[in-house]
Specification:
Putative ABC transporter substrate binding protein; Dipeptide-binding Protein, domain 1; 3 domains; transmembrane helix; transport; single chain; D-Maltodextrin-Binding Protein, domain 2; Peptide/Ni-bd; transmembrane
Length: 601
């Protein structure tokens, strides 16, 4: 997902304040309205807003999952469609019409009834106001119209048959609140929120705190804890120490060193789960707007697929994963992780290329790049020198770069490591001013969104890189044709075959090199809380889910005397993948949504 200049300026300003104060505290403590202890979560993250129409960062979009229910939820078991606001649904006219029936007795957190009018209002705003489609507009591109024949029925008429459930992944907002907002696209939605999820936001102060209180009207039942509080720490080691000391109750996105160090810590339980995220190298294939205008300063050599494939075959991903994350993950094939196995490109796919430096050299030979002085290749008087943009505050980036440079030199590529901060990585990747950079996304159970951000129509609108959400700047009309075909394939087996064919096409084109699917390393104070929910239920994760199951089922631990604190401390919030930004000598962590860069969700 793209960073706008406004968001970047805000991030820098907020980061500077955070760095001056270390672990940031606020003034006083706010008590939860609901009974029960507060689960305190260590994190470091940036919030653009809590506006479900426009928020583009992973941190707030994951919190929005706890605040607003969708028509259809992703199940805890495997992420498949299950009840949300809708009790049941059916397709008609061969998938050209979806009819949803809402549950009885639904209420917003302010006790107002939830009706079909709220659903229609949400979808209509996204369909008619471009700015309100910034977050999830790709999901409604096939909507023709939305009808509400009564308070409990929602009819979505599609432009063409649609297989993915159109009721999933779009947070439904209360019409009676949002229709009174003068400029909804600019509304931060950061206090006294009216929601329908298990928790609702009550208080937020940038880089200091986000407090969420249990929603007594949540249709699955009021949570067993009083609320969530996300507390800000400027580095992950400080988060780990806070967990040991009992100052927080939960920490996630741990490094392997931190995770191993907590294995035998008193009153701490560690958890390792299958992530819905991938880690990759994005390659600048020649950035263009959706109307074909080039932008950025990527090396033209990378527009040759032979060069991109040579880079792929020059990287020993297995060795890299072992050395960088101690093997705590699974080797990647493509951008749909094994966590959602039926869509994943199988490990035995015929298109997969093995680590083979000699084959990489042959591809470069065929592309006309001959070996010159120092073993570096040249063509038409130019050396094959590429820039790898890395975030110097992110250990996974810096460690990986150490291995990539000699591997690239071995096949004749001069790899220049450009270490900078997260703001610069973000700005340069948006503007197309890079050759390669490390990235990653958190994907959804249904692949439609992730596939969609690889289509030509999702590229930038303008030559500054803004106005679009493209995974890697990739564009292939045949891929677009297959995207439309998979969306309309009502037979699941047929759709799976098309989705895998699309991944094979993208893999062969190599606009990115997916390296691995990292395990999610988490830890919590088991003397205070237990019964966290996993998604998927078999070997899944607690935080950063495609749902709200992680903290919904959490309860005070037996014998804990009520669990954690009964009031909110001060600090910031949320549990997600982070990017470190080195500013003024300290580190503050930003989160790109990229769905999930995530990715990124």
């Amino acid at each position: 997902m793209q960073f706008g200049s406004r968001a970047l300026r805000s991030a820098v300003a907020i980061s500077a304040v955070a760095l001056l104060t270390g672990s940031v505290g606020g003034v006083g403590a706010a008590r939860a309205d609901s009974s029960g202890p507060i689960l305190r979560i260590a994190t470091a993250g940036f919030v653009d807003s809590f506006n479900p129409f426009t928020s583009i960062y992973l941190l707030p979009t994951n919190s929005i999952r706890y605040m607003y229910e969708s028509l259809v939820q992703n199940s805890q078991e495997d992420g498949s469609p299950t009840k949300g606001l809708a009790d049941h649904w059916e397709t008609k006219q061969g998938g050209r019409q979806w009819v949803f029936t809402l549950q009885d007795g639904l209420k917003w957190s302010d006790d107002q009834p939830i009706t079909s009018a709220d659903v229609k209002y949400t979808y209509d705003q996204m369909m008619t106001v471009p700015e309100l489609g910034e977050a999830n507009g790709n999901l409604i591109t096939n909507f023709a119209s939305v009808e509400t024949p009564d308070d409990k029925t929602v009819v979505i008429n599609m432009k063409s048959p649609q297989a993915p459930n159109p009721g999933a992944e779009i947070p439904i907002v209360p019409k009676h609140v949002w229709e009174k907002i003068k400029n909804p696209a600019d509304y931060p939605n950061d206090k006294n929120l009216v929601g329908s999820g298990p928790f609702v936001l009550t208080d937020y102060k940038a880089s200091q705190r986000i407090n969420l209180t249990a929603n007594k009207n949540f249709w699955r039942g009021e949570p067993k804890i009083g609320g969530l509080q996300y507390i800000y720490y400027t580095n992950s080691d400080a988060q780990v120490q806070a967990l040991r000391a009992g100052d927080v109750d939960f920490a996630t996105q741990l490094s392997t060193t931190q995770f191993d160090a907590l294995q035998n810590a008193q009153n701490v339980t560690t958890h390792e789960g299958h992530n819905r995220r991938y880690f990759s190298i994005s390659i600048n294939v020649g950035m263009e707007t959706r109307d074909g205008k080039p932008f950025g300063n990527g090396n033209p050599a990378l527009q040759d697929v032979n060069v991109r494939q040579a880079i792929r075959q020059g990287i020993d991903s297995k060795s890299l994963m072992q050395n960088v994350i101690d093997g705590k993950g699974e080797l990647a094939t493509s951008f749909l992780p094994k966590a959602f196995d039926k869509w994943h490109l199988p490990d035995d796919s015929s298109v997969l290329m093995k680590y083979d430096p000699e084959a990489a050299k042959r591809k470069l030979d065929a592309a006309g790049w001959t070996v010159g002085p120092g073993g570096i290749r040249h063509k038409d008087g130019k050396r094959l020198s590429l820039r790898l943009l890395i975030d110097s505050g992110e250990a996974q980036n810096t460690k990986s770069a150490e291995y990539l440079r000699p591997w690239m030199k071995a096949i004749g590529i001069d790899l220049q490591i450009k270490a900078t901060d997260a703001d610069t990585v973000s700005a340069d990747s948006i503007a197309g001013n890079y050759d390669m950079y490390f990235t990653g996304w958190s994907t959804n159970p249904d692949p439609d969104y992730q596939l969609g951000i690889n289509t030509c129509g999702n590229r930038a609108l303008t030559t500054d890189g803004n106005g679009g959400t493209s995974q890697d700047g990739y564009c292939d009309p045949e891929f677009d044709r297959l995207f439309a075909a998979q969306r309309s394939a009502m037979d699941e087996k047929q759709r799976i075959d098309i989705v895998r064919q699309m991944q094979e096409m993208n893999y062969t084109a190599t606009p990115q090199i997916a390296l691995w699917y990292p395990d999610m390393l988490e830890a919590y104070r088991s003397d205070r809380f237990d019964d966290f929910g996993l998604q998927p239920s078999d070997g899944g994760i607690i935080a950063n889910q495609a749902g709200y199951w992680g903290f919904l089922s959490a309860r005070p631990a037996s014998g804990s005397g009520g669990g954690g604190s009964s009031s909110y401390n001060t600090g910031v919030i949320l549990v997600v993948a982070v990017f470190a930004a080195a500013i003024g000598g300290g580190a503050v962590y930003l989160v790109m949504r990229r769905r999930d860069l995530d990715t990124t969700e």
